[in-house]
Every structure is written in structure tokens, then in C-alpha cells.
User: Fold this.
Amino acid sequence: MDNTINVIEAKTKKQLLDYVKFPFSLYKNHPFWVPPLINDELATFDRTKNPAFEQAEAYFYLAYKGNKIVGRIAAIVNWQEIKEQQKPKVRFGWWDVIDDINVSKALLEKVYELGKKHHLSYVEGPMGFSNLDKVGVLIEGFDRMGSMITWYNYPYYKDHLEQLGFVKEKEYFESVFSFEDVHPESFTKISHLIEQRYGLKVVTFKKTKDIVPYVDEMFDLFNTSYEKLASFIAVSERQKEYFKKKYIPFVNPEYILFILDKNNRMIAFSIVMPSFSEALKKANGRLFPFGFYHLLQAKKHSTEVLFYLIGIDPEYQNKGVTAIIFREYYHVFKQKGIQKCNRTPELEENHAIHNLWKNFNSTVDRKRRTYRIELENV
Assistant:
């Protein structure tokens, strides 16, 4: 086999399809890798469809040995982050590679080139365009099933980065707890007191169409509640529409709830998703002919859920509002026979989020990191 590594930019439809499909061969028959939907991935990389391109530029690269694809990477500059947060950073994401550090090095060179072209200072990744994209290389929990909102990777990814001089930038924890271990007395009584004290009311749903009028306000609250996190980038108006179409259809209406104050202003929201991991494995990237059926079955019958997003107005943080959220979900989960609850990646430094779960006997079962390298060192 020719060991020369050639890196090309994926520009044509065929090349972008190859880019999306490369992990399907790299992780073929892997028990814990969860395939994305191919058309969803293609839409993410389409400048005419993904509003992230309004604030970012991105280039997608494939590495070849002979005629065989051996790696891929995206090089991303988020100009909103650079201008608003003064972070002179070039990102990399959607990075997959065979166990050959020279392939990783060749791909990362493209990221360095983009950063140096724009006179940026450092590289961070893996990460997507924004906070609502996947983030981090898995460093612990390789024997656990991935999810539709995280990347899975082989253990050698971390080794490649560290051997190439990258150092830890951010760490994220993913945790799990059994629904059996949830004791409603820890939050039921206090939840009613908090509702009365602040004049709050809960809005729940039976139909997806009834959620839509609240979604813009939810994203505004998302921006407000997370803006103090060091890495946060606000969601734009067009991104609201994009994420509305991308994620709301996947969520059972019973799994979305909003809390309003006495003036009908939203002060908290929560989104939980059924686990689609097994269904996505069966779909193997395609909605048709049977993928849609598998996803629909998971949406109706999954006994596992994923806490996707919780947002609370800063004015109401530390006032026990989450007790109301947990009370509502307790009744829904009990009715639906939920057995296992997963928490999405949470920043190591986000102590407010960690404190929410202190009474749930949850255990960290996966860790992931973003890594950083200074451009002057490469």
C-alpha cells in the first residue's frame, strides 16, 4: 500500500458524501459508535442550509493513502467568537482518523494553515461551529454507548493529540443515573412552595405544534442563562429556526416544559430526548426504507432518556426552580416506564449544573476534552 498521505479539500457533492461516510467504515460493526443521519450531516456542511456559516467559515478535508480515505477534519473559524469574545481561535471538528499519527498531523496542518492565514493565536478542538454542536474527544468511557449529540472515538485519538503537543483546554463530564434511585420526596414538597412563593406556573405539552410558539423565547432564555460561561456564543435568529427544524421533531412533546412567572415571562425551560442510539444504529445513517420506523419506535418506547438542555434565568438560579422541573419529569417518566437517565456533556467548571443533580445518585460514566495548541508552536 502506498504510504504517501495526500490531503484534499472536500468541495464536490461526491467528496462531501465521502467525508460524511468515512466514519461508517472506520467504525463498521463497532458496538458503541452511533451513526449520524447522513442527510443531517450533509445539511450541517451545506453553506446554503446551515446558518452557522453566516458567522463562520469552514473547510473540510480528506486524507488519502493511495485511493483509500484514512482520515477527515473540519477547520473552522467562528468570527462571532473572535469579535465578541476576543478569542483568536481556530477550531477543528468532525475529526476521524485511522491509528496513524502522521495522518492526524497532516490533517491538523490544514487547521494550522487556516489559523495562521487569519493571524489567530491558537487551535482548539474537537468542536463544532457553536455550543449546540458536538464537542470533545472521548477520554474515558469507551465501553459505553454513544449518543446522537456526542462524538464517539477510539482511545488513540487522545494519544495523537497529546503526542503532537496539544494540552487539555476544557473537560466535560457525562453522567448517568437510574430512575429507580430517584426519590420524589427530595423535591416534591419544596417544588410547590417555590411555585407559590414566586407565582410560577408550568406549561407542558401533548402536541409538538403547541410548542412552536414558545421556541424563540426559549432560545432567548438559553442565551441569557448561559452567557456567563467562558465559551458561550449566542444563538442567532436564523439559528433558532434551523435548530427548531432540526431537533424539535425528535422530542416527545411531553419531554419539553417551560416555567413562566406571574407576567407569563419564561424563566426556565427543559428539554429531554428519548435515547435514539439503538435506533440510529439500526438506521445506519438512512431514514429510508426503515430508519424512520426505528426512530419512531424509539421516540414512543425508549426506556432511556437524555437530559439535553436546562436553562434558568439568572434571576431565578439558586432559588430551587429545578425542583419543579424534576417533579414534572418524575410523573412523566414513571408513566412512560423510563429506567435510565443520561446527562449530556457538562463543563467541568459549570458547578451550577453539577449542583442540580446532587440528590440523584448519578455517576460520571464518560469524560471528554477539547485540546489546545498555540500556533506559534507548530
Notes: The first helix runs from residue 13 to 26. Residues 224 and 313 are 7 Å apart (CA to CA).
